[in-house]
Amino acid sequence: MNQPIHRCGVQFGFDWPIRVYYEDTDAGGIVFYANYLKFFERARTEWLRACGVDQRGLAEQSGILFVVSETAVQYRAPARLDDLLVIASRIERLGKASVEFAQEARRGDVVLAAGTIRVGCVEHATLRPVALPSSVSDALRREPGLFQQGMSTTTA
Amino acid sequence: MNQPIHRCGVQFGFDWPIRVYYEDTDAGGIVFYANYLKFFERARTEWLRACGVDQRGLAEQSGILFVVSETAVQYRAPARLDDLLVIASRIERLGKASVEFAQEARRGDVVLAAGTIRVGCVEHATLRPVALPSSVSDALRREPGLFQQGMSTTTA
Amino acid sequence: MNQPIHRCGVQFGFDWPIRVYYEDTDAGGIVFYANYLKFFERARTEWLRACGVDQRGLAEQSGILFVVSETAVQYRAPARLDDLLVIASRIERLGKASVEFAQEARRGDVVLAAGTIRVGCVEHATLRPVALPSSVSDALRREPGLFQQGMSTTTA
Amino acid sequence: MNQPIHRCGVQFGFDWPIRVYYEDTDAGGIVFYANYLKFFERARTEWLRACGVDQRGLAEQSGILFVVSETAVQYRAPARLDDLLVIASRIERLGKASVEFAQEARRGDVVLAAGTIRVGCVEHATLRPVALPSSVSDALRREPGLFQQGMSTTTA
Description:
The structure is a homotetramer. Chain A is built from 4 helices and 5 strands. Chain A has helices spanning about 35-50, 55-60, 135-140, 145-150, and strands spanning about 15-20, 65-75, 85-95, 100-105, 110-125. A 5-stranded antiparallel β-sheet of chain A has the order 1-3-4-5-2. The interface of A and C includes residues 30, 69, 70, 72 and 127 of A.
């Protein structure tokens, strides 16, 4: 299976490889821009999994979901069919009920797309914000990439 | 909002227009074949809606879902960006717990893709087959396109 | 076919209806956030079409594409299966080689998602920025919604 | 990166792992059926890549595309968020200008979806059928899984 392929240490905490298939491209011959949000989510999901966070278990047992509340993405250069990308991810801010990720899609040394994704923790039934389970926030705080950023833990 | 644009009478019971956007295409410059399944589903959904069947209500109040159990599609000619397609739909077989649709994607007189889609009625909690609610089967039986096909009502 | 369903005059120049289908939702029971970018693009495309801009013709005859260079979206409330949304669109800035749109997804009076989308005009072969064809910028300048915003025409 | 995780020898020639993400699911809580076509295509693509076939190179240098001309899929049991699936693939028939694949999506020993996918080789400019390049058909003929099936090479 996929494995995080390397760690950048100071800059980004987790790298995840993504191969570009036909399904990801559009008639312009390049990756359809909305699909970078899928790539970014796959990388966040695998990061959480690598940290021991079981999203489906959280949903089924605690009724807790992570939902994206804000995205901001810059598209700098196109990716094409068969390209092998790396999604580099870093936590920008760890709040009480949300996490903000900085993420980049790279091909070799070139950053093709870069963005910040804010994910909130909500109760499934009401979709209202709830505090991150301590199992999650503790797991994220243990990530080395986090502290090397001098990231501060803040509220909200 | 969209309206069914015409009825073919003898051949097909319900027509629904679909515009091709970038999101539907791939790097080959044509509509990605998996997306015809989306187009077909939009048309089935709108047909059910036109018949007075409220799928979300069925799910929330009766715990009943429609799930696709079988698809067979032939791709004959490509659709391209900005094409205006018509999805023509007909019921092939109305079973006790399933419905089989014949559907075509057309551009003008040209059939681009044609297929049959079998949809089963299941209980959401268990995903086990249950009989179609009579409100649904009665509504489908009232559809004129159905009987002009000499369609027989069968079991399963 | 779909028709713009109303115009808000002062606030938004173009409204486009979108129905939510299964394909748009995810296991959280709500519309998958990346799909709002598809909804927004459908609305922009239809606005351009309503203005007489033929994107496929531009691509085939002039080798000119519109590509999204930046997106920023806030997700405020979830949309669900069968919801009927309206995508309201307005031009924020008309540059020499780019257009910035403000767009909202609404259900009734509730804004579910709101964002700004920057679209650049590029040469297909090189994906390098080129000036908007005058046929496009003239058509957009004629849009009443534009000037009621006191929108200024700027460069870049 | 992903690696084929094992070979079934007699039954299937190539296995490829697929993780289920939110993007793959729908409001029914299960994988949206159209997405199995994407999973199947990823597995075929990786098989071709493992055989040394470079699809993008073929497109750019020889103007040759592979297009899906027919799909038939049975959906037997649902896949859910976070499931780890294996896509097992086998060549059913190797024609002069087309290849027919048998493919299954499995979770452990359970077959969730099974189908046959017919892929044609076409000239990009015209989308008309052309013979498979010998580099492709030779590579596929070398695959052991093929011959263990007693698969015969046929025309068309």
